[in-house]
Amino acid sequence: MSARYPAPVARTRLSIERGTDKPLYRQLREALEHEIAAGALDPMRPLPSSRELARELGVSRNTVNTAYLELESEGFVEARPRSGLFVNRDMLRELRRGLPAAAVAEPVDWSRHLQALPDAGLPEIAKVRDWQSYPFPFVAGQVDVSSFPRLPWLRALREALEPAHLHDSLRDGVDEDDPMLVEELCRHVLPARGIEADPAQVLVTLGAQQGLDLLAHALVRPGSVVGVEEPGYLDARRIFLRAGATLRPIEVDGAGMVPPEDPAGLSLVHLTPSHHSPTNVTLSIARRRRLLALAATHDLLLVEDDYDSEFRYHGSPTPALKALPDSERVVYLGTFSKFLAPGLRLGYLVAAPELVEELRRLRRYRIRHASGHTQRAMALLIANGQYHRTVRRRRTQLAQRWATLRDALQAELPWQVEAPPGGVSIWLPGPPGLDCVELAAAALRQGVVVERGDIYFTDPERHRENLRLGFAAITPEAIVPGVRILAGLVRRQLG
Amino acid sequence: MSARYPAPVARTRLSIERGTDKPLYRQLREALEHEIAAGALDPMRPLPSSRELARELGVSRNTVNTAYLELESEGFVEARPRSGLFVNRDMLRELRRGLPAAAVAEPVDWSRHLQALPDAGLPEIAKVRDWQSYPFPFVAGQVDVSSFPRLPWLRALREALEPAHLHDSLRDGVDEDDPMLVEELCRHVLPARGIEADPAQVLVTLGAQQGLDLLAHALVRPGSVVGVEEPGYLDARRIFLRAGATLRPIEVDGAGMVPPEDPAGLSLVHLTPSHHSPTNVTLSIARRRRLLALAATHDLLLVEDDYDSEFRYHGSPTPALKALPDSERVVYLGTFSKFLAPGLRLGYLVAAPELVEELRRLRRYRIRHASGHTQRAMALLIANGQYHRTVRRRRTQLAQRWATLRDALQAELPWQVEAPPGGVSIWLPGPPGLDCVELAAAALRQGVVVERGDIYFTDPERHRENLRLGFAAITPEAIVPGVRILAGLVRRQLG
Predict the structure, then answer these.
(1) Closest Cα in chain B to A240
(2) At the top level of CATH, which class does the domain B8-103 belong to?
(3) How many whole angstroms from its chain centre is CA A255?
(4) pLDDT category, B57, cuts 50, 70, 90?
(5) Which residues in chain A have Cβ-Cβ distances shorter than 8 Å to B81?
(6) What secondary structure does DSSP assign to A425-456, as a single string?
(7) Contacts of B168 by beta carbon, 8 Å cutoff, 6+ apart
(8) Alpha-carbon gap, residue A309 to A286, rounded angstroms
(9) pTM of the entire structure?
């Protein structure tokens, strides 16, 4: 034993067990840590050299070195040039301050840290979460997974990891989107909606919803007045409320949103022109022009939420508001959720370059960007034509389900049912006396999932005669029997 | 010609061209829309029947019916029971109000709609965007794509679309995460960091960054004081500033963050205990305990950003702050970005169930959730052991690059270089006189991408002697020649 080192601590206190799961260096490190914390090692004297300690314990020098390196990097010991390792005295002091026992026991009062959100007063959309386990799921917003283009999508995902695409799929894009996806959107997706856009006008989102959230945070400040459709999409209401907006409901009739007579004070209007959510009516061309004129004269921004324009079952889709002349103040929101799958979380928006730049700045510190791999795979799916084939196939499927559901409702319900040829749900305004809350609950007990229509109104109590039936997730064979059960309940309720 | 209908407009005004790309019904619809807008059709009289018009134009009745259906759904015409289709007079009125020509020409003044963000004063991290096209990319935050586990990841993606997983991969989860991924995190990922968590304590994010953003919005209100490491991670500073916080820089030395003597007024502290960003030092155990004690006595929340704890090249990783007793006030942030790929955008956080519930409520109206398909594939990758194999393989690769870079820096640079054994970059505090801004620019001109170290300080001007070299994206062969070029520039600058 060298005179330079104290008697090794190992002999008396450090014990190492062999044959356990815990590696030797780790046992040693923990034992040393314990000794240091307990004050058993003299901070004035160097620790034993690794050679010494290894010999004492019958372990390799490497084991001791690894334990020492860990202790050093965590500050338990410090290396002094030409003197060896010493217990770190600052560390000792801090260890001794320790935890005040009383404070520890106190449970955290989270209400001190959290605050109520400004949308707390709105009803929750009472979605049935396990809808897929019911025989008749007339839910909106979900899709029948059997129609998902599994093989083309997997092929696109695989291609996106080939050398030509690997970097773009995996990189940290910081605030950039996949340039190929943006290019494909401009060349092959937006033109189908009549929209001419260049890449500086396009932002990729995690679905139309993220577009709304980014817009709300860029454009709304406390006190801003935002026009929303009445009835209308609940998520949009919540998102604008959370950003501090005051909502002004704007009436919707059979030709879509009624352009407000006096738009003074409004800073932004959210609308669903292709298929109004939830009633599915299409905004008339005349009203589109009127809204654009109002936007220009009042410097008003229009958010065109085009969440399911692909699904029109007669004729071609109406051109987007964003496709009309003088639509600089229109922000267009699109999504891949409705025809591919909501679980992919991919959408896009089109707006003036100045606004896109600002939204990109916001997004960069929220999520950076959507998955590069998913973006590149989608770009490849569009480029190879599978995207359009999938849209067409899905449209044919949905047109059939739409017709089946409409026919069944017209045959079974005791009032005249109208259904505009589009969208993924049918809106059912019932006669006075119908109570959607009770009806939806009774239907659920018989395996039929339908959505309450009252929640889409500012004053739900006065609109309980409305129902909404989605047809994108239900199999075609289940439609007619499901409607029959519902109709039986309706007749019983109307008595 | 029936007496019931007026002379068909088709004869004089409607023209249909054959052999063009535009379908006939669409041409017809546009011609009719034009006639209606021009006031050429008498609103008091019904439009010609589809049979009539079809005969006049020599097209099928179906073509006419499709055009009529579109015009009806857009409000140009309305069907009156037993009388036929009529021009909609409300529509005519609205069309005539039209656009005021003067307003249209006005360009949009976006500065009226947008506002400056509260982080506008911070420096942008001047990342070189096309780093992959340089021969010596010592960038941090990116990965060498050749080390990505392509085949296991594609297998996991394929398995996630098999019947047993399809629903979970594609559904709209609203505010839910993939339960299998959460389970796998609790069982197989968090225990490696010493963390015991149940599913109610876990939230899946789009990367550690989204975790920070959600936390900032749940916990920070204007005037909140947030402690940040000095030097420290710029993105965290920006995110807290944007949420309205005032930042209080807290010194970092060789043992990590120095626990503040007087934490009064602080509501939250962000720190990177495993490998401090950007210097890579590890927070000492004693300071961890001290910070937990301060948190308990001052009801202070600690955000533990554990972005690359997997990458420790000697010994085992330090247990997380969240793994210590009395860590209820610690929020743990993890990510898959660093060892798999930043482009996948997937991470997670662990916190008290009350806080997770609130963050979930916030996330639901921002992005809903991360891609279900990506989540399920990651869950399968963890469950089948490939995740851990990949981490181990990547750690071995990175350990080699770390050693190569450290050795090269020690051999080439004219001062003593120390590098804690972990992370994906080496922090280089240079001697007085070194100017990282000029050096990084000069290096770039010779194909060497290094990061400026000044930007991580509150006062960058006073810290221009610091550099940061990442080693996760550069190939091992490029390390030594890259360091030689850099060292030449350093000697010239100091010389």
Answers:
(1) B365
(2) mainly alpha
(3) 31
(4) confident
(5) none
(6) EEEEE--TT--HHHHHHHHHHTTEE-EESGGG
(7) A343, B178, B179, B180, B372, B376
(8) 19
(9) 0.85
The three-state secondary structure class of B15 is: coil
* Paired strand residues for A270: A228, A303
Q: Do B290 and A106 touch (CB under 8 A)?
A: no
Find chain A residues with C-beta within 8 A of B132's C-beta.
167, 171
Residues of B with Cβ-Cβ distance to A343 under 8 angstroms: 168-173, 371-373
Chain A residue numbers with beta carbons less than 8 Å from the beta carbon of B171 are 132, 142, 145, 341-343
Greatest mean pLDDT among A13-27, B313-327, B342-356 lies in: B342-356
Report d(CA B11, CA B30) in Å as an integer. 16
The predicted complex's ipTM stands at 0.84
B chain contacts of residue A90, beta-carbon cutoff 8 Å: 255, 286
Q: Are B387 and B377 in contact (CB under 8 A)?
A: no
Question: So what's the pLDDT on residue B3?
Answer: 39
Compute and round to an integer the Cα radius of gyration of chain A: 32
Interface contact A70-B318, CB threshold 8 A: yes
pLDDT reported for residue B233: 94
The helix (run of H) or strand (run of E) holding residue B102 is helix B101-105
Which of A118-132, A366-380, B402-416 comes out lowest in average pLDDT?
A118-132
CA distance B245 to B171: 36
Tokens of A118: 């400004």
Identify residue B85 by its one-letter amino acid code.
L
**CB-side exposure of A388: number of CA atoms within 13 Å?**
12
Q: Does the distance separating the beta carbons of B337 and A172 come in below 8 Å?
A: yes
Residues of chain A with C-beta less than 8 angstroms from the C-beta of B169: 341, 343
Give the Cα separation of B34 and A32 in Å (integer): 88
Q: What is the pLDDT of residue A103?
A: 46
By Cβ distance, the residue of B112, B170, B345 closest to A143 is: B170
Judge whether residue A292 has pLDDT over 50: yes
Task: Note whether B73 contacts A422, CB cutoff 8 Å.
Answer: yes
In angstroms, what separates the C-alpha of B394 from chain A's closest C-alpha? 15
Angstrom CA distances, A425 to A232, A303, A421, A434, stand at 14, 22, 10, 19
CB contact under 8 A, B75 and A285: yes
Instruction: Write the pLDDT tens digit of every residue in B226-235.
Output: 999 999 999 9
Please list every residue in chain A whose beta carbon sits closer than 8 Å to the beta carbon of residue B378. none
**A109/B299 Cβ within 8 A:** yes
DSSP strands (E only) in B292-430: 301-305, 330-335, 347-350, 425-429
Residues of chain A neighbouring B370 (CB-CB closer than 8 A): 345
* A330-335 and A301-305 strand pairing: parallel
The alpha carbon of residue A485 is apart from the nearest alpha carbon of chain B, in Å, by 26
Distance between CA atoms of B466 and A403, rounded to whole angstroms? 68
B150-384 fold: Aspartate Aminotransferase; domain 2 (3.40.640)
In chain B, where are the structural domains located?
Answer: 8-103, 131-141+389-494, 150-384
Give which of B365, B373, B374, B378 to mutate to test A binding, by max A Cβ within 10 Å.
B365
Cα gap A77→A90, rounded to integer Å: 10
Smallest CA–CA distance from B268 into chain A, residue: A113
Q: B19 vs B15, B16, B53, B64, CA distance in Å?
A: 13, 10, 20, 18
Sign of the CA dihedral running A289, A290, A294, A300: negative
Name the nearest CA neighbour of B199 among B345, B363, B350, B330. Answer: B350
Architecture of domain B131-141+389-494: Alpha-Beta Complex (3.90)
In this complex, the residue of B75, B157, B284 whose CB is nearest that of residue A157 is B157
Average the pLDDT over A458-474 and give the result. Answer: 95
Specify the amino acid at residue A409: L
What's the gap in Å between the CA of B261 and the closest CA on chain A?
12
**Token pair of B98 as six digits:** 């039209």
